[in-house]
Amino acid sequence: MKKFLVISAFLVLIFASNAKSQSMTTVAYSMGLATGDLGDYASSFSGRGFTIDYRKMVQPNLGVGFYSGWNVFYDERPFDTYTVDNRTLSGKQYRYVNTVPLMLAADYYIKPGEDLNPFVGLGLGTSYTERATDMGIYRLTEDAWSFAFAPQVGFMYSLNRYAGVSLAVKYNMGLAAGDFDSTQSYLSFNIGYVFMGN
């Protein structure tokens, strides 16, 4: 995870230093709700996550860049007998999910130049998902890198010409790959601080 943070910080610095037109870097606190197969595995609402979004404005109402982050989900299951693949174990289960999206992204801003600016966007790229199930001394893990996409809606409020705040909802979906026979998806609710540069 340290490698991921270093690479993300490096990319933000490179994009920010090379941007000649306006750019925006959003660092957000992210809350998540797993859906579909991932929701069946870990159904609890999660308050553990963050996102980093960078957009360079190529038109007054169009920004392109990248999106990344990290969301963690956790669930605790009661004492029971569970069968995974060809193994049957009895005990209490503790389930953990880590997801890391790495995507190219674009946003369309509906009211450029105004303080309150709604937007819609889409990210395309890859997502790493790891699921770990602990039962007593045993740990069962599944993971995959998969093709993924993340549509989003939200709005940004400009505090001044250098900073703003944003609220956004993203639907992150990684397609079936690796150890997963079905999509791994979740909603993320993001509250961020926006750094604006020229």
UniProtKB/TrEMBL annotation:
The keyword ATP-binding does not apply. The keyword Signal applies. This is Outer membrane beta-barrel protein. It comes from Algoriphagus oliviformis. It comes from the Bacteria. Keywords: Signal. InterPro entries: Beta-barrel_OMP, OMP/PagP_B-barrel. Residues 8-189 form the Outer membrane protein beta-barrel domain.
